[in-house]
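Lecture 7 notes. Example A: sequence first, then its structure tokens.
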Amino acid sequence: MNTYSTGVLELAKQIGLEPEHVAEGLRLACRSFNHIQANTGMTIEQFRRVFTHNRHSIAIVANIAMRRAGRRDDALLLMDIYKASVGIAPYLPPIHTGIGTLPEYHDHPQVRDAIRILTAAGLPPIHTDGVHELRPGFQVLPDTTGHLPGFLFIAPDPGAKGRTGFAGGDLGYLAVMRWAGWGVITERLPGGLYAVCHPSHRDNPFPAAPTS
């Protein structure tokens, strides 16, 4: 019977794969970086610990694991989301007013971060003039009460349930934001919204709701 490390099990849960695919991804990634281990004098175990606590390295492991599982499109998607979340995408298209959120929230920096991540995952944003819905899609809203700094609320696009893969279904929104390093509330809120928390505010409590 195989036993897997906590890190392998957690990553497998996060990206929706069996642990053996993640363990194989880690083995292949470490093998690719053997020259680093040889040149630093670290033991294999020390190298694995450093490697698996670095976000970029974790993204590489996840990419390889997805490919080993035969999910090439999702492998590419994980890297696109990761790059958007850390701002290293080669080209970040401008977010025009009324795309992904109401015009009055266009300049909210965390709203813009979330829209960029979700669109990198291939999820369609709403187009609105603030009164009329010009094109259906997801909508990101900030907390306007001032009681929940760092929290945003996401209304999934109407076609979410029909999609498959890593970002498919309503819960795909939570999978994408969790992979991008945001905190998520796993229970749906009134109005069909999901709540997510910017990485810089992840220690903030959300009243009467479980977090992951």
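Example B, a different protein, same format:
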Amino acid sequence: MLGIAYVAVMAGVILIGPLGYPGYSSLHQHISEMGATGAPHGPTISALFIATSVLLIAFWLLFLRALPFSAMRTAGVILLAINGLGLLGAGVYACDFECARNDPSVAQQLHDLFGGLGYLSGVLGLFMLALGLRGLDGWSRLFPLVMICAGVAALSLPLIAPEFPWHGAAQRMLETAFMTVIVAVAMRLWRSSAR
């Protein structure tokens, strides 16, 4: 349920957050801009980013305990938990207004560092998780989905750079790839526990 709670809250922030931000464009602006210093609901959005990150970290660490040991799976899940830590750091250190890159504050620099490392860890984690699930009894059906999501995330990652005009859309594709895997894993865990 932690994974579903994470997806529900994060999707809510991504979809509903822009409604309270006049002029905000989900296609051309980063998600973090909704929680930035000076944004209309910045502190609330940042608090939601922090809360969802805790849910995400807990979800991946509990998932790790549900599987038989494999170095590949373990490394993948730990990297996905590190993605959660990166997002937590990015939530704690809100970016400057509109995540402006000219003369960035220390908070902006830390935001970019944590967020960037978190995303990179998450993309690598998806590939390793996919390979770790391949051939695992009861889980191998998720291999193609996780691998496709890993590919989408890898292709989206360089496009979230602010220089790309559609970086908001690219970031949402990246987040959708992560959330798709989380929902698939959570549903598989739920079916296992229901037996």
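Note on Example B: The two ends are 16 Å apart (CA to CA). Residues 106-133 form the longest helix (28 residues).
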